[in-house]
Automatic annotation (TrEMBL):
Organism ancestry: unclassified sequences, metagenomes, ecological metagenomes
One Pfam short name: Anticodon_1
Protein name (database record): valine--tRNA ligase
Enzyme Commission number: 6.1.1.9
Enzymatic reactions: tRNA(Val) + L-valine + ATP = L-valyl-tRNA(Val) + AMP + diphosphate
GO CC list: cytosol
Length: 668
């Protein structure tokens, strides 16, 4: 499909992330991070999906609004009661502490005392932390292992004990009274029922609140302790923030998303996943002392589940357990620059990364991290961030949904690759766009227009002599200057990756200047050298050739097939290159702005004439007495040299000049 879309790609350089070469690079670079002490493993609370039964990274979280209840439960302190509101009463047995805000006067007398956990009747400390919100719930919160990431932070910060409640499969641990062996949601209901029955439920409010879910399956995330591998990203946050300023972001505002993400990072990057498919960790653990041992570089790529470790551990033990986790896919996607350097050619920093906006927090960020860690350099100079194509508001086009009529292969077969490409270039950089197959009719209209205009022009260029530049008439000079002008504008926009705006610039030249005006004006001169003169015809041919070859060169990046066809049909014999895609764009040095002003005055005078005819229900071929030329004084000589053309295209018997003061070309 990529080939049929006309992508200019060197297919011999493709790679697969599961190929031995890439597995080797990925494992090598992991070992490099271990050596740098940037990669480490530890037993700690991790974000865990009980549905997929794997650890996940912060970047894989989504949020979802769910209906729930806020349950007010009484903890007792020396005969007093502290009410605590919680959405997760099933974690009551996991309670390790109550926290209040140090500023909260309501609770100052309780600080440092012990509170008794209702239903389970054991004591926990009452402590203060600024993170507790004064106005949410009752101002007293329970810290349970683990309700959320704050619980995990507090547990570490205040060295609180761990009480096991939820297991990796989403069931409650058997040891938990009343609810052991139940699923989380059933356990929640059961606890609420018990609290109510025992008069321990003060009230229960219905609420809608936002929870973190796994983006892959939509299931609510738990936090459970587990041994995982991490890449340290929190320690060098400042360095990653600084990197944002050293990369050119297109569009600029996407940088803010990156900065917001990095600023709010709370966890190191967990790179191990409890999945079957993926690149394995080149790691074994000593059965005797638990120490991790690593593969030798010449062993890579290695799968520790298939290959035994041969060395002897420091503790004397020779038996090992293989690591069964695999790398998170981003652990390998983040080293694309290094994978591309596999032929030994240094490429970093590469010139540009192209990607969509939803993976700034993963692909962009992780690639920057890895590049800085492995090379000390940024991965690329520029990053270009595109939007999504949506079926309608908020709905992605996907195979699973009914909008699969939008399958690219079918759209290409039905409409042509050029029509698809021309449409795709209409989106603004970084902005989501909607797609409906009807949108392609504009593309098809354009392609037909380009074909017809080219065919017409080429029919008048058959005996062109490009060996010498003829004496050029002002109108011909204008279309050439206007073409140069569009080339300069489009080049600047493309240098900023504004593909859509650049196309718009080329469209303006093609539709408004070339088709609607220039060709209409020059037509008769090309047909009738007997009236207009042979030299004048040559001037027209020269300009027509220049404008059209450059228009198709400009469009070649958008519609590579039709432009190549037009090129092969005619231009190839003069341009001496086998394909239009081997030609370079012109690099005009300077534009005669007076010619552009002349063109503007010319176009508005013609527009007035056409408006007059259509308002009076006259055909465009109707003869009129005179055509009014409205232009500043200095441009009048250019119009005078163009009289024959203007009379021919307006079917007027004479021209009337209305001069405007300088720099004022408004029509009267
Ligand atoms: Zn999941
Ligand atoms: Zn050992």
């Amino acid at each position: 499909m990529w080939r049929s879309l006309g992508f200019s790609v060197d297919w011999s350089l493709q790679y697969e992330t599961i190929s031995p070469a890439v597995r080797k690079i990925s494992q090598e670079l992991f070992l490099e991070l271990v050596k740098q002490k940037k990669a480490y493993s530890k037993e700690s609370p991790v974000l865990w999906c009980t549905e997929c039964q794997t650890s996940i990274a912060q970047a894989e979280l989504d949020t979802k609004d769910i209906d729930s209840t806020f349950n007010y439960i009484p903890f007792t302190v020396d005969g007093d009661i502290i009410e605590v509101a919680t959405t997760r009463p099933e974690l009551l047995y996991g309670c390790v502490c109550l926290f209040v805000n140090p500023e909260d006067k309501r609770y100052s007398k309780f600080i440092g005392k012990s509170a008794r956990v209702p239903l389970y009747n054991y004591n926990i400390p009452i402590m203060t932390d600024k993170k507790v919100s004064l106005d949410k719930g009752t101002g007293a919160v329970m810290c349970a292992t683990f309700g959320d990431s704050t619980d995990a932070e507090w547990t570490e910060e205040y060295s609180l004990p761990y009480r096991k409640i939820i297991l990796p499969d989403g069931f409650i641990d058997k040891s938990v009274p009343f609810i052991g062996g139940m699923k989380t949601t059933a356990a929640r209901k059961e606890i609420i029922r018990l609290l109510f029955e025992k008069g321990l439920l003060i009230k229960s409010e219905s609420i809608t609140h936002t929870v973190a879910v796994h983006e892959r399956c939509g299931k609510e995330i738990e936090i459970i302790p587990s041994r995982q591998w991490y890449i340290d990203i929190l320690f060098e946050k400042e360095r990653f923030l600084k990197a944002a300023d050293e990369i050119n972001w297109y569009p600029e505002q996407m940088k803010n998303r990156y900065i917001a993400w990095v600023t709010n990072l709370k966890w190191d990057w967990c790179i191990s996943r409890q999945r079957y498919f993926g690149i394995p960790f080149p790691v074994w653990y000593c059965k005797g002392c638990g120490k991790a041992v690593f593969a030798d570089p010449d062993q890579l790529p290695v799968n520790p589940l298939e290959t035994e470790y041969n060395g002897k551990c420091e503790c004397g033990c020779r038996e090992y357990v293989p690591e069964s986790a695999v790398f998170d896919t981003w652990a390998t996607s983040s080293i694309t620059p290094q994978i591309n350097e596999r032929f030994g050619i240094p490429l970093v920093p590469m010139s540009m990364r192209a990607q969509a906006h939803e993976i700034i927090r993963t692909w962009t960020f992780y690639t920057i991290v890895r590049s800085l860690y492995h090379t000390g350099k940024l991965p690329w100079k520029d990053i270009m961030i595109s939007g999504f194509v949506l079926a309608k508001k908020g709905e992605k086009i996907s195979k699973s949904k009914s909008n699969s009529d939008f399958a690219p292969a079918k759209l290409i077969a039905d409409n042509s690759a050029d029509a698809m490409r021309y449409w795709a270039a209409s989106a603004r950089l970084g902005t989501d766009t909607f797609f409906s197959p009807d949108d392609l009719s504009a593309s098809k209209r354009f392609i037909t227009k380009l074909w017809n205009a080219s065919k017409f022009a080429i029919s008048h260029l058959q005996n062109i002599d490009l060996s010498k530049i003829p004496e050029l008439l002002p109108i011909d000079k204008w279309i050439m200057a206007r073409t140069d002008d569009a080339i300069i504008e489009a080049t600047e926009l493309l240098n900023e990756y504004e593909i859509g705006s650049a196309r718009h610039e080329i469209d303006e030249l093609f539709w408004k200047d070339f088709c609607d005006n220039y060709v209409e004006i020059v037509k008769e001169r090309l047909y009738r050298p007997d009236i207009h003169g042979e030299e004048e015809r040559k001037s027209g041919q020269y300009a027509l050739y220049y404008a059209l070859i450059n228009i198709i060169k400009l469009y070649a990046v958008y519609v590579p097939h039709i432009t190549e066809y037009i090129y092969q049909e005619f231009f190839r014999q003069y341009e001496n290159k086998a394909s239009i895609h081997l030609l370079l764009w012109e690099k005009p040095n300077g534009i005669d702005t007076e010619l552009l002003e002349f063109g503007d005055a010319l176009k508005s005078s013609i527009a007035e004439m056409r408006k007059y005819k259509s308002e009076n229900k006259l055909s465009m071929r109707t003869q009129i007495e005179a055509m009014k030329i409205i232009a500043p004084e200095k441009l009048i000589p250019l119009f005078k040299k163009s009289e024959k053309d203007l009379l021919a295209c307006s079917m007027a018997k004479s021209l009337i000049y209305v001069t405007l003061p300088e720099k004022d070309t408004r029509p009267l």
